[in-house]
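Why do we care about 3D structure at all? Because function follows from shape, and shape follows, mostly, from sequence. That is the central idea of this module. The next example makes it concrete: a single protein chain, its amino acid sequence, and then its structure expressed as tokens.
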Amino acid sequence: MLKEKIKIRVAGFLFINKKLLLVEHHKEKSLHWVLPGGGVEFHETAKTALKRELKEELNLEVRVDDFLFVDEVIWENRHNIDLYFSMSLTGPLKIKLEEGSALNGYKFFSQNDIPAIILKPDLKDIIMQTFENNFYKGFKTYEN
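And the structure:
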């Protein structure tokens, strides 16, 4: 049964030594890479949600910096509004994946790595711009 509910998700761009952190996600019988983040809870700000998600899922302490862009994902079984931010590391880089989560792994990717990966939603064009410090500002819709 289709749930008629829109999910608000936050995600962040975290660069360390000119490499971008992505997490490998296992969902709906597929493995793919996503920018780290998660769902916003009721009465929680987007920035607070992103900080919480990074701490819970990766054990990272971050500062959420600038709002970058929003996208809308409409696939047969989901409807997400995704808010994207730049982030800075404020604590030690000691990643520990949350047990029992849908995360399968993590990796810091160079610009040359990005074209070959499976990314959902497919933000490769936007991610490639960020390596040049040219952050996308706008709105995109992804539908299947």
